[in-house]
Every structure is written in C-alpha cells, then in structure tokens.
Amino acid sequence: MKKPVIDAQNVDLTFQTNDGPVHALKNVNLEINKGDFVSFIGPSGCGKTTFLRCIAGLETPTGGRLTVNGMTPEEARKSRAYGYVFQAAGLYPWRTIRGNIQLPLEIMGFPKSEWKGHIDRVLDLVDLRGFGKKFPWQLSGGMQQRASIARALAFDADILLMDEPFGALDEIVRDKLNEELLKLWAATQKTIGFVTHSIPEAVYLSTKIVVMSPRPGRITDVIESTLPPDRPLDIRDSEEFIKIAHRVREGLRAGHDA
Amino acid sequence: MKNILPIVTIVLALIVIWYGAAFKMNSTWTYDQAARAGTEVTFSDLLSDTMQQSRPLLPAPHQIASELWNTTVEKKITSKRSMVYQGMITLKTTLLGFVFGIVIGVALATVIVLSRVGRLTLMPWAIISQTIPIVALAPIIVVLSNAVGTGTLMVPKAIIAAYLSFYPVLVSMVKGLTSPDQMQLDLLRTYGARQSDVFWKLRLPSSMPYFFASLKVAVAASFVGAVVAELSTSAISGLGARMLIGSQFGEPMIMWAALFAAAILAGLLIFLVGSFEKAARHLMGGRAL
Ligand SMILES: Nc1ncnc2c1ncn2[C@@H]1O[C@H](COP(=O)(O)OP(=O)(O)OP(=O)(O)O)[C@@H](O)[C@H]1O
Ligand SMILES: [Mg+2]
C-alpha cells in the first residue's frame, strides 16, 4: 500500500497568547500523496499558514499526529524534505540572483563543484536564464518571486510548500506564473502544498483542494479535482472547471455560516 | 552641481558678516591706540587697521587664510609650527580611536544581539557611559593608562576618541543585526541553518547599511574626542593643543588657524568615509543613490 507523503491525523494547535489561547487548528485530518498538488483555501485567519508551518516544522502541533515522509516534521526538515516559498520573495539584496539561489546550497553543505549545475537547472525551470547576474532590485516583482521559487527548488526537495506566493502580484502576471508552475510541477513530479485566497487559482492548479474555515481553523471539504493533468489557461471556461469552482465556493460559504 | 550655488551664497554671506564683525570688534583696540597717541582716526585708517592687527579680537578671514597658508604650505612639515604636522598627530589619534571604536562597537553589539545576558547587562552600561562628560573622564584615563605604563599620550588620547566613537557604531549595529524579520529567519530555519550561518549570512550583511551610516557619525565623534583629548590631557601637540596654546598665550591667529585646520580635516574625514560608504554600497549590489 502506498503511504502518504504528508499524513495529518487529528492535528490540533492552540497558541497561548497574552489575550488567552487561540485555537488555530482543530482536528485536521489530511493525507497528501506523492505528486499531489494540494491547495489550501479559506478565509483569512482559518489556519492555512499555520498548517503549512506545521508541515514545515516551524510550528509544533499541540495535539494529534503529523508525519512527513514517515518522519516528524522536525526530522523531515533536517533531511531537507521540502522547500518553502513565502508570500514575499525575501531575496537578499546584497546577493545576485545566482547568489540567492546558492544560499541554501552553501548552508546545506553541497560541494562547491555542484553549485553551478543546480543553479543553472533551477534558473531554467523558472525561466530566468540570463538573469543570474542581476541583483533583485533589477527584477520585477513576478521575476523576484520566480527567483525565490528557484531558491526553494535548488536543493532538490521532494516537497514544495508555498504560502500565497503570488498573492502580491497582478492577475495577468499571476496567470502566467500559474501556467509556469504547472509546467514545473509536471517536469519535476514534486508534491506541492499551496496556500491561496483565489478560487480560480486553486481550481486551476490543484489535484486536491482543501477548503478550510476559521474559529477554530478546520477542514470543511476536500475536493479531488477531475480536471485532466494537462491544463491550458482556457480550461477555466470549461463546465468541469466551473463545477469544481462552484463546489469550492459552497464549501467556503458553509464554513462561513457555521 | 545644482546645489553648489546655494552653498556658495551662504559662504559668501558668512564671509561678509565676518568682515563686518571683525571691523566692529577690532575697532575698539584701534580707537584705544589712537586715544593713547592722541591722534584722530579716519575711516580709512580704521578700515585698514582692523583688517591687519597682529593680535585681533577676531581675525579677518583673509588673515586666517594667510596664516593657514603660512603654517601649512610655507612651513616644513617637520616644524612644530606646521599645521600639517599638528594635524597629522590629531589625525593619527582620530583614526586609532575610530578603529578602536568600530571594533568595540561591533563586538559589543554582537554580544548584545546574540546573548540575552549580554543584552541585559551591557546595553544599560553603554548608555550610561555616554552620559559622563568626556572632559571629566579624560584626565582619569590619562592617569590610569600612565599607571599601566603605555608610555606615550597617544594611547589614552585614542581611548578617549574611541570612548565617543564606539557608541554610534554600537547603537547602529544592534539595530542592523536585529533588522532581519521573522520571515528571513524562518527561511534559514527551513534550511536547517546553524546559528553561525544565521549570523554570517543574514544578520551581518543585513547590518551593513546601518554600519556604514554610523561610520560618518563615528568618525566625527572620534575627531571631537581626539581634539578634546588634546585639550584636556595637557598634551603639547595636535590641533587641540595648538588651540589651547593660542588662547593661553594670546595668539589668536594660531588659535583660529588651528580651528580652521581642524574643520578642514574633519570635513575631509567625513568626505572620505562617505566615499568609502558609497563604494561599499555599490559592492553590496545596492542601486545607485
Ligand atoms: N505565532 C502566533 N501566535 C499567536 N497566534 C497566532 C500565531 N500565528 C497565527 N496565529 C493565529 O492563528 C490563527 C490562524 O492564523 P494563520 O496565519 O494560520 O491564518 P491564515 O489562514 O494563514 O490567514 P491569512 O489568509 O490571512 O494568511 C489566527 O487567528 C492567528 O491570529
Ligand atoms: Mg497566511
């Protein structure tokens, strides 16, 4: 039997704050298989970021069981299981694009002789060939975000976790990056966890859509996409697409009323 | 080049006011002399006399300029009366104090940022240190360093300069080293980075703009420290000592020339540090300002 890459069982997380406990995640059950593209969607404050951070071992659940590649998230982090992309590109302004992508390789102790190969490969993947010697401020916001994806891909983790990576970009750039992300996913066969606020984005990208609702943060619906793996942008006008989008919207509304 | 015009205007205005003030202040002496000799003073006498007294209350700008010229270009730089010779001594103290100040400031900031204990114990002392007037502290530093046997006055003078210059570096570096936000720190955590990686690859480079900005303040503080040290340690050389000698022996020209030499030297230092800052910024990939 195939084991899920990410396995969450009854995951609970309560933050102790000065204003009392905040129940950020309640009873989260989710299995993510290898090669899945999973989107998390839900209103602000429903725990999407928190759950992603739990998977990344940046936050520790206060209850339940969470494994990544059969290990604890902490161990998975140490074994370089995932790359994490934040909402802001967060490139180092004092390093060139190549230098930025090189950062995880330096820290993880990759041999120097391999750096160039890794960097060239991921620059190709995110279509930034020829921009390696530029500094971040010389690139547009969309290109910076692509560079930060390249940085997360550089050390060949199997899992890519992305927290609203395109949230700050305009729709046209976003469409283009979504298309590229799908290509990248097809080319690399990575497992992707993707947080978004946009229903079309979630439906267009995902094989699995996780709908969440707040107070306390929990999963209200998990939708397996029936769209084919090959998705041109105009698939968004198809009946199938609209049907799934409708179901997502229903799920969001149900969570809201509850 | 656009901003050269306002600068020139201000300088010209200052020179005009200065001449006026010199005329007014020095005329008292001219009148006294005339009264003693029992002669009348015409306006043209007054004008020419107030501009060329040998011990004026306020020397006219051209007098200071010619005194400066005489004591820099005309004098051999090995002569004790040469401002270049005296300036070099002050410069040496300033630079030594500046380097001490940078090292101490950066080291303390590092300890403060990396350890909680350091933060709680060192920061209050650093702040208190700056509330003690340096003039009161200077003689103590001289006595103590003599007791330790440093020999020359150079070391205590440099310590005094460093005492003033470490603080701006410390404050800026603490701010700079803590400038990376949570996201930046989390990113490194996802790489499993060690504390040393976080420091060398994130905190230190992030602090550089703060560091460079503090250098200009620090070099000025170090210079002030060096001059004050020369004034208050009974030193006999350096621009500060020249100022003191000038005022004590009633040689206003020496005093004023030393003051202007000090101002020129300070301007030069700040310009140099500023150029260094620009070059460093460029090397660190900054966009041109
Ligand atoms: N470190 C923390 N300490 C205390 N409370 C926190 C912390 N991080 C998150 N929370 C709380 O947990 C809840 C979930 O936050 P989270 O950031 O996961 O929401 P989100 O779904 O990502 O929202 P958004 O769409 O706005 O990014 C919120 O109520 C938030 O205030
Ligand atoms: Mg979030």
UniProtKB/TrEMBL annotation, chain A:
GO molecular function annotations of the record: ATP binding; ATP hydrolysis activity
CDD domains in the cross-refs: ABC_NrtD_SsuB_transporters
Family classification: Belongs to the ABC transporter superfamily.
Family matches, as Pfam families: ABC_tran (PF00005)
Lineage: Bacteria, Pseudomonadati, Pseudomonadota, Alphaproteobacteria, Rhodobacterales
Gene3D superfamilies, per database record: P-loop containing nucleotide triphosphate hydrolases
Entry keyword annotation includes Transferase: no
Stated name of the protein: ABC transporter ATP-binding protein
Source species: Celeribacter baekdonensis B30
InterPro entries according to UniProt: AAA+_ATPase, ABC_transporter-like_ATP-bd, ABC_transporter-like_CS, ABC_transporter_ATP-bind, P-loop_NTPase
Automatic annotation (TrEMBL), chain B:
Pfam families with a match to the protein in the record: BPD_transp_1
Gene Ontology biological-process entries: transmembrane transport
Membrane topology: Multi-pass membrane protein
Keyword Isomerase: no
Primary localization: membrane
Gene Ontology CC annotations of this record: plasma membrane
Record Gene3D superfamilies: MetI-like (1.10.3720.10)
Domain of life: Bacteria
Matching CDD domains: TM_PBP2
SUPFAM superfamilies assigned: MetI-like
Assigned keywords, A-Z: Cell membrane, Membrane, Transmembrane, Transmembrane helix, Transport
Localization (cell): Cell membrane
Bilayer-spanning residue ranges: 95-114, 126-148, 210-233, 253-274
Recorded coiled-coil stretches: none
Family affiliation: Belongs to the binding-protein-dependent transport system permease family.
The protein's name in its UniProt record: Binding-protein-dependent transport systems inner membrane component
Lineage start: Bacteria, Pseudomonadati, Pseudomonadota, Alphaproteobacteria, Rhodobacterales
